[in-house]
Design a protein that fits this description.
9 helices; mainly alpha; globular; 154 residues
Length: 154
């Protein structure tokens, strides 16, 4: 795959500055870093964004996430490895990533409501929206993930 635009950031610096500021707000939120990475990974799995999967799996590992939890994320509903808070966030991630088909169900929101403060619910919803936008930017413009793992497999 060939990238469609080599340096997309130079074309919309104001837009990217806004996205980066939004990302900075997540770092100073009360949402745990591990939870943020799980949300980003799950949305990226659903959207099929290789660039973002590479980035967020690497970030999660660097911050202590286990390989098993990363591997099992696609089957989180069947695995006991995730906390109720993480489960609520992952269900909300799936609901909002597939929002045209789900309509953001009340049951998923109720689970989020049990685990997250009102401020955190807004932060989580923005986080999910942001990763979906990053996925669309990376997929649409054909970002390439680093290839060091591909060379190891060959």
């Amino acid at each position: 795959m060939t990238p469609r635009i080599a340096t997309p950031y130079k074309h919309i610096p104001e837009g990217l500055k806004a996205m980066i500021a939004l990302e900075a707000s997540f770092r100073s939120s009360t949402l745990e870093h591990s939870l943020q990475e799980l949300v980003k990974l799950r949305a990226s799995q659903i959207n099929g964004c290789a660039f973002c999967l590479h980035m967020h799996a690497s970030d999660a590992r660097a911050h202590g996430e286990t390989e098993l939890r990363i591997y099992m994320l696609n089957a989180w509903r069947e695995s006991p490895l995730y906390t109720p808070r993480e489960r609520a966030a992952l269900a909300w991630t799936e609901a909002l990533t597939h929002v045209a088909g789900t309509g953001a169900p009340d049951a998923d929101y109720a689970a989020v409501e049990e685990e997250f403060s009102e401020t955190e619910r807004v932060q989580l919803t923005l986080l999910i929206g942001a990763i979906n936008l990053w996925n669309r930017l990376a997929i649409g413009l054909r970002y390439q993930h680093p290839l060091e793992l591909a060379h190891a497999a060959a």
